[in-house]
Write a structure and sequence with these properties.
The structure is a single chain. With 260 residues, this protein is mainly alpha-helical. It has two domains: 218 residues, Rhopdopsin 7-helix transmembrane proteins, CATH 1.20.1070.10; 35 residues. 75% of the residues lie in helices and 3% in strands. It contains ten helices and three strands, in the order E-H-H-H-H-E-E-H-H-H-H-H-H. The protein has a three-stranded antiparallel beta sheet. Helix 2 packs antiparallel against helix 6. The radius of gyration is 24 Å and the shape is globular. This is G_PROTEIN_RECEP_F1_2 domain-containing protein. Keywords: Membrane, Transmembrane, Transmembrane helix.
């Protein structure tokens, strides 16, 4: 609802979320998912580098330490995002009236200026920038580690590590291009909602980010044979179910022949 720093909750979900706090919580949950998705890419490259550089060292520790550290990291990040957006929330009836749209039904708003806006803005932008820097750093370290140890690894192991790392670099690059950059630009323009063409830019970046999932799935299926195989098995299973439902006599006949 720019230039007002407000969002309208439409669709079926609007019937379930009756209050501003509920709508804000739903919006915050989406943002927590986005931020945790960014963190998951970082942890993937950290794991790849650590296993390459310190494989013999970490093998002595229990595996659940890694799982626990990831869970704790995601939990802390989720709590931080929830706290920031709860702090940023402002009741619609306290929002400057001259900037509000005529219809305020299903709206929820955030502070359009001041310290709270600056805090959320710089935290989010710093988070996104930190994710990009961390991915570039650990991806570079992983490539360097592979080159350093290329004479100490078996040929098959080296080729497998290269293939995995190359695939990770490709899908992460696509994620940054179609997911990270649009979200970064969207966050900037949302927190600077009075800039020229802010609404148009925010709408365009939202459209790109919404299609990121489809592009990512297609790319993953293209890169990883095991995923394609699983998908083919699922499609084959549904095909068999469809055939059995539409031609029950043939399935019964096959069952009789199998018993005989």
């Amino acid at each position: 609802m720019m230039p007002a720093l407000c969002f309208r909750m439409d669709g079926l979900i609007s019937y379930a979320l009756k209050t501003e706090e509920q709508r804000s919580m739903y919006f915050t949950a989406i943002l927590i998912t986005v931020v945790n998705c960014c963190l998951s890419f970082v942890t993937t490259f950290i794991y790849r580098y650590v296993t390459l550089a310190f494989g013999s060292t970490i093998s002595r520790y229990y595996k659940y330490f890694g799982y626990v550290s990831c869970v704790v990291g995601h939990f802390i990040l989720a709590v931080a995002v929830a706290f920031l957006f709860k702090l940023w929330l402002i009741p619609v009836n306290e929002y400057p009236v001259d900037e509000l749209p005529e219809k305020t039904e299903n709206l929820f708003c955030y502070h359009p200026e001041g310290l709270k806006l600056a805090l959320v803005k710089y935290c989010l932008l710093t988070c996104y920038a930190g994710v990009i820097l961390a991915i570039v750093l650990f991806a570079g370290l992983s490539v360097r580690e592979l080159r350093t140890k290329r004479h100490h690894l078996e040929r098959n192991t080296l080729n497998m590590q290269k293939e995995v790392l190359n695939s990770l670099l490709i899908i992460t690059g696509i994620a940054l291009l179609f997911g990270g950059v649009p979200v970064f630009v969207y966050t900037f323009y949302i927190t600077h909602s009075k800039l020229p063409l802010a609404l148009e830019v925010a709408s365009a970046t939202t459209l790109i980010a919404l299609n990121y999932g489809t592009i990512y799935v297609v790319l993953v299926l293209f890169l990883f044979r095991s995923y394609r195989k699983v998908l083919c098995n699922i499609v084959g299973s549904f095909k068999n179910i469809f055939v059995n439902v539409n031609h029950p006599s043939s399935s019964i006949t096959r069952a009789i022949h199998a018993v005989a």
